[in-house]
């Protein structure tokens, strides 16, 4: 770690483990051409269960229950089915029941019960499909054809890429039957210009590591990682090596001359195009969102989260909005705000799971806000507020439709929730006078100073229309005043300009000023008795902005009370919340599968509210 070897690293790591919600070490493993054979089948199968069923069980934390308590397992699945009787839930019950039947085959009386459950739910599954689909449900030849097409296209792409022909046209190849195939220049349906593409990579040559959800879909085409050059996306990118997911298709057309054909490679935006129509039949495109996401973060960030917290002067240039994909006028921004001792990568599990849902992918785009959590929370909130307003102004200036941008959702974890809350809060001179005291406020503060007004006088950000709080210490955390919290706080060096402004304008050191007596950094601000949270809780939130609480209890799910190990239920609970859910989790609640399912539910509610 650069320039901070003098820090007591072990103490900082303890504090990081307690305070933050850093993501698991998501990475990528290269398998090369030899690993391509298993890639196609893994779209459908994942061990003994289909990939979709495996995802469903993981999302609802039911994997371990299946064999340890099968009766409870079936009960939980049937309860979920009563809430959502969709084909994916029906086939999950059918498939897992059959696996349980096989497990108990030596006990026929038990096994047959699960066989009957399988038959019951397969019939329901087929009946559901027949409502909207053709009666020709079983066509193994079609599956074989798609697999053959995809394997051949994978090999053709590799062949052309090795010869630098995969992005060129006007060359010919001859098929085994003597047919001459003339290749035209490839067609690009991607959200970036062709000149900004560095290279394409086959997803089948890689395997994500430590992503808990398999965000892939079987279909026609070959999933690719599209690596972009630096600054290909005008906004700040999500990672140094920015990539987007793509799907490769290949179209052949006959020409007037015998035995001659025209062909073209098509590079398609996986986030925007789900299907291709052939002879009035909609055929799904193959999609892979997990592999590009894992590939994008294969390199460590320029600054680690410890540097970002303790060396604010050095790392300040990394502050700002991070875009996972290019701007799209028809997609609502979801801005993810990380917590203390963390960074934007803490959201990888959630992003990976949410972007696999076609409805969410169609209507939302994900962004992260990065900041130094060593800064006072009101300073970080000012940075977020200015970033959001600046982004809106940039889009307005460039002629974009701002309708969906102005439906923005903020999701904040831990300290990030406090910063998000300040985006929908109101602060003015009258409120501050009441909080500090009229005499002290007027005599000790230069209320005309621009830094003062930018930091402490604000209105709700107009574009923000909903906020989701995850494990947020609205009333503080006792860890902030523990010995290791105080030690970590003492190691934070605020930038000189901020210290000067704090002393002279914002956090006046003059005696007699109630509540405010020292320079408060981000860790200090989490003190339950500190002035920052007292002021924050004195500020009214916009009454027309829905907010939701997702809270952790490290002992039991669904029980209000307890703690996630860092933040207590009493600190996270808000009486004004439109909804609240308690999941069994430590402080990294944003990575909990049940929490992510709750986020998915809220995002869909937000879409429904648009229609009213």
Short description:
The chain has 612 residues and is of the alpha/beta class. Mean pLDDT is 85; it is low at 1-7 and 503-517.
Q: Classify the helix fraction into a percent range.
A: 25-40%
Please give the alpha-carbon distance between the first and last residues: 52 Å
**Largest sheet composition:** 7 strands, mixed
Q: Tell me the overall shape.
A: globular
Number of DSSP strand runs? 22
> Which radius of gyration do the C-alpha atoms yield?
27 Å
Q: Mean of residue pLDDT?
A: 85
Low-confidence stretches: 1-7, 503-517
Question: Treating each run of at least 4 consecutive H or I residues as one helix, how many helices?
Answer: 23
Estimated share of beta-strand residues? 15-25%
Global structural class = alpha/beta
Structure overview:
This protein is an alpha/beta fold and 612 residues long. The chain contains 23 helices and 22 strands. The strands form six sheets. Strands 4, 5, 6, 7, 10, 11 and 12 form a seven-stranded mixed β-sheet that branches. It has a seven-stranded mixed β-sheet with strand order 16-18-17-19-20-21-22, sandwiched between helices. Strands 1-8 form a two-stranded antiparallel sheet. Helix 3 packs across helix 6 (87-103), helix 14 crosses helix 15 (415-421) and helix 16 (429-436) packs across helix 17. The protein is globular. The two termini are 52 Å apart. The model is unreliable at 1-7 and 503-517 (pLDDT under 50).
């Amino acid at each position: 770690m650069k320039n901070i070897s003098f820090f007591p690293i072990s103490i900082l790591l303890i504090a990081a483990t307690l305070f933050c919600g850093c993501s698991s070490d998501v990475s990528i493993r290269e398998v090369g051409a030899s690993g391509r054979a298993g890639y196609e089948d893994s779209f459908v199968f994942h061990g003994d269960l289909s990939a979709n069923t495996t995802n469903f069980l993981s999302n609802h934390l039911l994997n371990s229950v299946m064999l340890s308590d099968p009766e409870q397992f079936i009960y939980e699945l049937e309860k979920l089915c009563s809430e959502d009787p969709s084909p994916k839930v029906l086939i999950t019950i059918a498939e897992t029941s059959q696996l349980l039947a096989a497990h108990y085959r030596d006990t026929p009386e038990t096994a047959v019960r699960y066989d009957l459950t399988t038959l019951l739910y397969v019939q329901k599954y087929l009946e559901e499909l027949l409502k909207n689909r053709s009666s020709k449900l079983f066509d193994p030849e079609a599956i074989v054809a798609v697999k053959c097409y995809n394997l051949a296209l994978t090999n053709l792409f590799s062949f052309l890429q090795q010869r630098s022909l995969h992005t060129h046209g006007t060359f010919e190849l001859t098929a085994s039957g003597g047919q001459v195939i003339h290749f035209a220049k490839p067609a690009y349906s991607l959200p970036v210009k062709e000149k900004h593409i560095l290279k394409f990579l086959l997803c089948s040559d890689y395997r994500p590591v430590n992503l808990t959800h398999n965000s892939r879909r079987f279909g026609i085409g070959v999933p690719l990682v599209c690596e972009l050059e630096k600054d290909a996306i005008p906004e700040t990118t999500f990672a140094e090596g920015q990539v987007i997911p793509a799907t490769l298709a290949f179209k052949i057309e006959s020409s007037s001359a015998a035995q001659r054909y025209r062909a073209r490679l098509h590079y398609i935006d996986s986030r925007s195009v789900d299907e291709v129509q052939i002879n009035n039949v909609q055929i799904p495109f193959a999609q892979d969102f997990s592999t590009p996401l894992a590939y994008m973060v294969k390199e460590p960030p320029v600054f680690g989260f410890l540097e970002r917290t303790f060396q604010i002067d050095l790392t300040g240039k990394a502050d700002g909005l991070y875009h996972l994909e290019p701007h799209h006028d028809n997609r609502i921004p979801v801005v993810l705000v990380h917590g203390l001792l963390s960074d934007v990568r803490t959201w990888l599990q959630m992003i990976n799971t949410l972007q696999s849902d076609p409805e969410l992918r169609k209507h939302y785009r994900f962004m992260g806000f990065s900041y130094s959590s060593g800064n006072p929370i009101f300073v970080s909130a000012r940075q977020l507020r200015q970033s959001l307003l600046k982004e809106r102004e940039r889009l307005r200036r460039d002629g974009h439709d701002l309708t969906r941008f102005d439906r923005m959702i903020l999701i904040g974890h831990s300290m990030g929730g406090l910063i998000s809350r300040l985006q929908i809060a109101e602060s003015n001179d009258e409120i501050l006078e009441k909080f500090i005291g009229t005499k002290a406020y007027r005599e000790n503060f230069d209320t005309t100073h621009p830094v003062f007004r930018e930091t402490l006088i604000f209105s709700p950000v107009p574009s923000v229309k909903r906020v989701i709080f995850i494990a947020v210490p609205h009333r503080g955390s006792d860890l902030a005043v523990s010995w290791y919290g105080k030690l970590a706080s003492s190691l934070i060096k605020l930038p000189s300009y901020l210290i000067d402004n704090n002393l002279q304008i914002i956090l006046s050191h003059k005696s007699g000023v109630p509540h405010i007596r020292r320079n408060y950094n981000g860790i200090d601000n989490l003190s339950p008795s500190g002035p920052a949270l007292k002021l924050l809780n004195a500020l009214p939130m916009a009454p027309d902005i829905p907010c939701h609480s997702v809270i952790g209890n490290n002992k039991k799910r669904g029980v209000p009370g307890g703690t996630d190990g860092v933040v207590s239920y009493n600190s996270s609970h808000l009486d004004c919340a439109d909804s609240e859910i308690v999941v069994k989790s430590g402080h990294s609640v944003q990575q909990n599968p049940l929490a992510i399912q709750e986020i998915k539910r809220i995002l869909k509610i937000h879409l429904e509210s648009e229609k009213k």
